[in-house]
Amino acid sequence: MGKQTLNSEVEKTCYSKQELGEFRQIILRKLEKAKQNLLSLTVGHNNGTDDTYCPFKVLEEGCNVLSKEVNGKAVNRQEKFINSLENALVRIENKTYGVCRVTGKLIPKERLRSVPHTILSIEGKGILAQRKMMK
Question: pLDDT per residue over 12-39, tens digit each?
């Protein structure tokens, strides 16, 4: 009975090879979709300034510029997301995936399945938010 009690009290510090494999598959699917989304945002969009000079169509010009800004922000967000997913794959290889950077505890599987690129548990996010408020 002593061993059972001891084992139930020992907190798990990393995910198993099988669990990491599951997360890898989730990340690879999301990465493929994110790259497709990025491609759709960038293909066929001219982000240059060739078509911005048109003195007689000021309103149209403003809409075009705004559209380019919105698209540029979407591209930046997508690139950041892809980078985060690729970093998560590196953490899987290093066997540090799923460990909260603030608390050092394992991030719950449910959270990792929803946000597989996260580096913080909900508890860790709360601690960071408190630290920011104190500054």
Answer: 889 999 999 999 999 999 999 999 999 9
Structure tokens at 20: 């990491």
- Map residue 106 onto helix, strand or coil: strand
DSSP-derived secondary structure for 114-129 = HSTT----HHHHHHHH
Q: Is the pLDDT of residue 65 over 70?
A: no
In b/e form, how buried is each residue of 37-60, taking b as 16+ CB within 10 angstroms?
bbeebeeeeeeeeeeeeeeeeeee
Angle between helices 58-94 and 17-42 (to 10 degrees): 160
Domain 14-134, CATH number (from 1.20.120.610, 1.20.120.910, 3.90.1140.10, 3.40.50.300): 1.20.120.910
CA-based torsion, 84, 89, 91, 92: positive or negative:
positive
- State the alpha helices, DSSP H only, in the chain: 2-9, 17-42, 58-94, 109-114, 122-134
- As to burial, measured by CB atoms within 10 angstroms (0-12 exposed, 13-18 middle, 19+ buried), residue 79 is middle
